[in-house]
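User: Please fill in residues for this 364-position structure.
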């Protein structure tokens, strides 16, 4: 369960620190300005591959430099660089890696994330049944476990990118496999579908989102038309923007900025604003004004309530969109498209919507 794909650009594994944990090799990257209590991301390679291949295709350090977290690429320890996807040999090793990263970098043990490609993705799924008390969220890529979906220790956040042209772990396996976890976590039967989802490598992508499920978790699947069997740096930002919302106790309460510093109050009418002039920045908000100067494209964004009582966002192409409920908890996160899109349908109440650096208030 390996595969080959293109890398290109950025740092190499030579920029990582090679270490040994319990006699096995890992490669570690920590930003130069890393703070204590920062997250940890572990990225596992496919069968018959190695940390160099995984790093050269994903380049997690590029996200780590911006977001401020530690990256580890471990090396599979069984024959042909494989992972133990039935027992607990490698899951125990993961906990030893976490302990070592805490000793060396004082990482936040509540914010450890596991991702992997192909057999590394199988191992990521397997870890849900073994060490979900140590891992906050999971991002398996192009990997469904050949032994079937196992029983997760708890409801966990999952994001699973997979190419439709995968000739190793065929795409037609994905729906049934993910459904097992959706059923375990009592997720809504119907997915929220975001078509033409922006991806630097594959046009016409679709993001499927099920949730909220038990314990408020979400399951996401990124369908990538034309993608074969290879890991890709085109997916890592979407993975990070999703998994970073959780620690092992659930959603991190990322409360939005106080209302007084919001750059605008969104319309709550049942129709889309006629133009961007219907939403104007508050002159008293220096932070909002500065944000608009830094990114003029944000000036065209509008947030409003649709006729079917959903929160809509328009003209937010490529921007991160986060919806908070009145308690300050994240209830939805997605990436903006060029036109109008539905970002949340839920209970009546007041909601804060952050689009890039702009903040809106609306209600359902």
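Assistant: Residues filled in for all 364 positions:
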């Amino acid at each position: 369960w390996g595969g080959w794909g293109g890398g290109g650009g950025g740092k190499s594994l030579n920029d990582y620190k090679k270490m040994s944990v319990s006699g096995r090799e890992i490669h570690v990257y920590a930003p130069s300005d890393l703070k204590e209590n920062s997250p940890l991301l572990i990225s596992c390679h496919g069968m018959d591959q190695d940390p160099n291949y995984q790093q050269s295709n994903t380049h997690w350090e590029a996200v780590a430099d911006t977001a401020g977290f530690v990256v580890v690429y471990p090396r599979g320890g069984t024959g042909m660089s494989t992972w133990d996807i039935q027992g607990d040999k490698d899951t125990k090793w993961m906990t030893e890696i976490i302990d070592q990263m805490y000793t060396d970098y004082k990482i936040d043990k509540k914010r450890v994330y596991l991702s992997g490609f192909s057999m590394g993705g199988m191992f990521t799924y397997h870890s849900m049944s073994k060490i979900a008390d140590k891992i906050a969220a999971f991002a398996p890529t192009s990997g469904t476990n050949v032994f079937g979906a196992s029983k997760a220790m708890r409801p966990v956040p999952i994001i699973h990118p997979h190419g439709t042209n995968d000739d190793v772990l065929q795409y037609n396996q994905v729906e049934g496999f993910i459904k097992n976890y959706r059923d375990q976590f009592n997720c809504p039967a119907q997915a929220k579908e975001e078509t033409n989802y922006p991806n630097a490598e594959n046009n016409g992508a679709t993001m499927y989102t099920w949730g909220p499920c038990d314990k408020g978790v979400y399951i996401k699947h990124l369908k990538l038309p034309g993608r074969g069997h290879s890991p890709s740096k085109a997916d890592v930002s979407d993975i990070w923007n999703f998994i970073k919302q959780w620690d092992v106790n659930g959603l991190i309460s990322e409360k939005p900025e106080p209302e007084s510093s919001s750059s605008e109050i969104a319309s709550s009418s049942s129709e889309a604003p006629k133009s961007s002039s219907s939403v104007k920045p508050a002159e008293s908000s220096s932070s909002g004004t500065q944000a608009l100067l830094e990114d003029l494209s944000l000036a065209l964004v509008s947030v409003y309530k649709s006729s079917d009582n959903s929160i809509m966002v328009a003209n937010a192409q490529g921007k991160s969109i986060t919806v908070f409920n009145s308690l300050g908890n994240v209830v939805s996160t997605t990436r903006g498209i060029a036109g109008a899109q539905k970002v949340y349908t839920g209970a009546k109440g007041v909601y804060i919507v952050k689009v890039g650096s702009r903040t809106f208030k609306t209600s359902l």
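For context: Residues 263 and 288 are 5 Å apart (CA to CA).
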